[in-house]
Amino acid sequence: MERFVIDQKTNTLVKCNHSMMWERLDYLIIPHQYKGKQIDRIGPHCFDHLMINLLCIEEGVEYLEDEACENSHIYNVKLPRGLKIGKRCFAGSQLEDILLPRSLHIIKEGTFSNCKNLKSIWAQRGLNTISYDAFNGCESLKEAHFHILKNVRDRAFTGCSSLETLNLGYQIKELGNHLFNGCDSLKSLEIQGNFDKLEKYTFAGADALESLSLWTHADSLYFPPDGFQDTCLKEISLIGDFEPIVEKRCCFPEDIVLKMSYGQKALEILGYYFDVDIVA
Predict the structure, then answer these.
(1) What pLDDT is recorded for position 276?
(2) How far apart are CA 50 and CA 24, in angstroms?
(3) What is the pLDDT of residue 21?
(4) Residues 6+ apart with CB under 8 A from 84
(5) Residue 43 near residue 65, CB atoms below 8 Å
(6) Is 247 exposed, middle or buried (0-12, 13-18, 19+ CB in 10 A)?
(7) DSSP secondary structure string for all residues of 7-53
(8) Confidence tier at 126 by pLDDT (50, 70, 90)
(9) Whole-prediction pTM value?
(10) Which residue has the higher pLDDT, 235 or 24?
(11) What is 102-122 written as a DSSP string?
(12) How far apart are CA 243 and CA 260, in angstroms?
């Protein structure tokens, strides 16, 4: 029985075999070359019926296809440079933590959704986009660290009820809706970048959020009506020389405290309507 079944027309690994199915393997290495055959891609559900403590993919393998490790019993992975990851690639798997390769630019739709055991995620400086539902339902996720994120799509962290630490980096341009719905442990958050608007439901359902820092280098920042009403926010720090665009006074809860510095355009406009704490 061949260990690796490869489609030689596409150089795609389509199945992994093991003599004792459901025997937990300490590690499994996916080579770029195997018995004169080349593995460039790893196909959907290659690892069904295997339990793997550590999956190591050698450099040269280019793509984990959509659903490649979906619902798999893979607990840890080591990914090479240059690897791209498809939609729902690890969705529903037993993955516990992961360091993403520097060359990865986008986490696609639902890539890690419903990874119930995922506790931490670390991304290097190449990653700039988190797509829809990327970490939706990762109820054990406690910390997530990113560097140069630019786009965070709808429901990216919905249902991450254990999330305490979230570092989105300092280059945010666009934020989606319902990003933190059900993040019951996320009490403080800083968003920094060049974003010029907030969506109506960006913070909807962020029931535990008490402190928020919005730091933008954009010329203006749009605050949607009722955009913070479904939170427990006590204070919002506004940093940057932007002009606030406000349609209605209800863009902030009545009892919110806004923190700003002297000379800010935002202070001139919002200070008339809301309590402001002047900071140095």
Answers:
(1) 86
(2) 7
(3) 63
(4) 62, 63, 64, 104
(5) yes
(6) exposed
(7) ETTTTEEEEE--SSTTPEEEEEEE-SEETTEE--EE-TTTTTT-EEE
(8) confident
(9) 0.92
(10) 235
(11) TT--EE-TTTTTT-TT--EEE
(12) 13
